[in-house]
C-alpha cells in the first residue's frame, strides 16, 4: 500500500510539473455582432488587427446581413451564435424571427431586458408569461439561419444571459447545441471566466486592468475574456439604454484594448497563448 501511495504521489507531482510548463491559454471573445454597423467594423478590426479570436453574432439583429458578408471575407475567424431573447437599446430594436407571441412586447419587438430591471419595469422576458415552446421555436430559427448563412459556426452563447431565465431553458440550450453539433461546452474543457482586475472605464484603464488580469492566469489553465468592441462615433452615440448611456466611449475603449500594442506585447512577455473556441477541440 505504501508503495502504491508513493507511486500515486509521484504521478501527481509529474502531472503538476507538466502543467506548470504549459502556457496559459486565453480565448478573447467579442460579442454582439449585428447590433450596429460600427460594431461590426470594430469586431472585425479586433480580429484582424488585435487579440480577439472568437466573434458572437446576434442573428435577429438589424446588421446581421452585413455581419454575414464580413465573416465570409474573414473565413478563419471562429464564430458563435449569440442566442437572443431581448432587444435592449432604446433607439434601435429587433424582433423575433418567429411568430412567438409570448416573446414579444406590445409593439412586436423582443422585450428590452432579460431579468427584472428598475429602469424598465415589467419589461423583462423573465417577468412575462413566456412559453418554452416559443423559446425552442425561436432558438431553432436563429440557429438554422446562422448555420445557413455561416456554416462554420462552432458554438452557442447567450446574449445578456438569456439562456439562464430558467433551468428548462438552460437544458433546452444544451440539447439544441448537441443536436446541431455546435456544442463546445466550456465546462468540458475546464475553461475559467476571467475579467478586468481594476477600474476599466477609460481605454487606458481597460488596458492597464487587462494586463494586471494576465498576472492572475496560471500556467496550463485556459481562460475566457468577453467584451464588446465598438467605435466612439455618431452612430454608437445614438445607441444606449437607461443605465448604460456611454456605449460609444465604452466600446471604443474595448476596441483600443483589443488592438493595443502594449497588450499584445504583454501577452507575449507572459507566454500566454491566444486561442478560439474551436481550438479547444484540438486538445
Automatic annotation (TrEMBL):
Gene3D superfamilies: Glycoside hydrolase/deacetylase. GO terms for molecular function: deacetylase activity; hydrolase activity; metal ion binding. Its cofactor is Mg(2+). InterPro entries: Glyco_hydro/deAcase_b/a-brl, YdjC-like. Residues 1-19 form the signal peptide. One of its GO terms (biological process) is carbohydrate metabolic process. This is Polysaccharide deacetylase family protein. The lineage of its organism: Bacteria, Pseudomonadati, Bacteroidota, Chitinophagia, Chitinophagales.
